Amino acid sequence: MESLGRPANRDQFVQRMDFLKSPKSQWFGRHSWGDENQTNEALKLSGTSILTNFNQYVGSNTRVLSSSMVTETRFSFTQFYNTTGPELAFTLRAVARLPRAATRRRCAVS
Predict the structure, then answer these.
(1) Closest Cα partner for 30 from 45, 43, 19, 44?
(2) Rounded to whole angstroms, how far apart are CA atoms 47 and 85?
(3) CB crowding 15-38: b at 16 or more within 10 Å, else e
(4) DSSP labels for 22-40?
(5) For residue 62, what are the contacts with CB-CB under 8 A and spacing of at least 6?
């Protein structure tokens, strides 16, 4: 019996920026990026793969209008992608990983 694994690759990157334009105006920005690939192995390359990717952008401006009034404007954009498929679905060299017998074409000559 062969021991089957669950290889996973998870990467995430977050960048933040703060800018004090003046004592009455502050800017904030953030970018988040993530990529996750997981393979659930099964019998001879017949498992499943899960892909998850995301991008998120956030920006904000806070202004002091008076000693008793503050306003904040915030905007954001999120992109999320998630899919699942056969184990070899998301690899560029899927055909090269197949057993040799499965890739041979048999031609019958009559």
Answers:
(1) 19
(2) 9
(3) eeeeeeeeeeebeeeeeeeeeeee
(4) ETTEEEEEEEEEEEEEEEE
(5) 25, 26, 28, 70, 71, 72
Query: What pLDDT digit, counting tens, does each position of 39-73 carry?
Result: 877 777 777 888 899 999 999 999 999 999 999 99
Tokens linked to 97: 């990983």
Residue 49, sorted as left (phi over 0), alpha (psi -120 to 50) or beta, turns out to be beta
DSSP H or E segment with residue 82: strand 69-86
Least Cα distance to 11 among 38, 44, 35, 46 occurs for 35
Taking the C-alpha atoms of residue 33 and residue 18, their distance in angstroms, rounded to an integer, is 18
pLDDT, one tens digit per residue, over 12-48 is: 999 999 999 999 999 999 999 999 888 877 777 777 8
d(CA 35, CA 12): 6
